[in-house]
Design a protein that fits this description.
Blueprint: E1 8-10, H1 22-36, H2 54-58, H3 60-77, E2 80-92, E3 94-101, H4 115-128, E4 134-140, E5 144-151, H5 154-162, H6 175-184, E6 193-200, H7 211-220, E7 223-230, E8 235-241, E9 247-253, H8 258-267, E10 271-275, H9 278-291, E11 295-306, H10 308-326
Helix pairs in contact: 1-3, 3-10, 4-5, 4-9, 6-7, 7-8
Length: 334
């Protein structure tokens, strides 16, 4: 156990300079002892060999107690304090809605384990890296709905993210409805920045809202849209059911309306990305994370707790014990 812990500082460290007097105090005590108890030179000690009592042996204890009292008093005068560092973080957060395609084509296996599984994993990593922002989740296929409204409760958000699977809603790719639902969740937000991350692997073929109409609405409410097209170049393996109900792999052309996704991003001051594998998808989310940095104001302050009382009490105890012993057990007769 350390006498002075590492997180202790001294309010009056100048008093520690008194410790240089310690050698002088030791010398003074030694000279005083020699004066009170001078040596007797004798030709033989055989006659007094057994006259040294336990009091004589323990008498230096008085000096030890004085020195200990001096040390404790010096430390107490230096005012040791326990320091607690604290930070108060004030953020100007960003409200983000992740609009994720859950259509049947998201089960294509050009990503591992598939497009939807890879998208969920990377989205979770993105969420975990934004502890000071509110994040929401919208899913869409042939229609759309809000899986989770914008929230700072990452536990609830990640649980709802894991519950996403293909087949929850009517199949299709309603990009306009997915974007419109996401914008609806942000239009009344007072956040410094409002962002939609729209991820799809297809062409708009469902829904009653035109994607560019939804993009115009996003622009009207100052919502920036980052669009991500997921899918390899060329053909991708899809799990299909044959006539006997068995799952077989069939290669099909990857069709992503990249021109539409670029237009949406450009109109809303966002950016379009193309992910062709797990690695590039993770890199895209990292880039978006860098582009949408949360402004954070950190106020650092320290709290001090006085600790000198402990050392002052020890000094008083040592001094009182020395005086008690000196005037009782070790009392000298003049």
């Amino acid at each position: 156990m350390e006498l002075i812990p590492k997180d202790i500082v001294f309010a009056n460290p100048i008093f520690l300079g008194l410790l240089v007097l310690l050698p002088l105090l030791l010398l003074w005590q030694w000279l005083k002892y020699r004066q009170q108890y001078p040596e007797l030179r004798m030709s033989s000690l055989s006659a007094v060999a057994t006259t040294r009592s336990w009091k004589a042996i323990l008498r230096p204890l008085l000096t030890v107690l004085k020195i200990a009292a001096f040390l404790m008093l010096t430390i107490a005068l230096a005012r040791p304090q326990n320091v607690l560092d604290e930070e108060k973080i004030t953020t100007e957060g960003i409200d983000i809605v992740m609009a994720m395609d859950v259509s049947g084509s998201m089960l294509a296996q050009d990503f591992k384990p598939d497009r939807l599984g890879a998208s969920k994993k990377v989205a979770q990593e993105f969420i975990e890296g934004r502890p000071h922002d509110r994040v929401g989740l919208v899913v869409f296929a042939g229609e759309s709905f809000t899986q989770c409204p914008v929230t700072t409760d990452q536990g609830v958000l990640k649980d709802l993210l894991q519950e996403i699977k293909s087949g929850l809603i009517e199949d299709g790719t309603a990009i306009g409805m997915g974007l419109a639902t996401a914008v609806t969740r942000l239009k009344d937000s007072e956040a410094k920045s409002k962002v939609v991350i729209l991820l799809t692997d297809g062409v708009n073929n469902s829904g009653f809202i035109d994607p560019m109409t939804a993009a115009e609405t996003a622009k009207q409410f100052d919502v920036k849209v980052y669009t991500i097209g997921v899918g390899t170049q060329g053909k991708a393996p899809y799990p299909m059911k044959d006539i006997f109900g068995r799952t077989v792999t069939q290669y099909m052309d990857v069709q992503i309306d990249e021109d539409l996704l670029r237009e949406i991003a450009a109109l809303t001051q966002g950016k379009y990305f193309r992910a062709t594998n797990n690695k590039s998808l993770r890199a895209i989310y990292k880039e978006i994370d860098q582009l949408e940095k949360t402004e954070m104001e950190v106020s650092a302050f320290k709290r001090y707790t006085e600790q000198f009382h402990f050392f002052a009490i020890l000094a008083a105890v040592f001094l009182a014990l020395e005086m008690l012993l000196r005037n009782t057990i070790f009392r000298s007769i003049p």
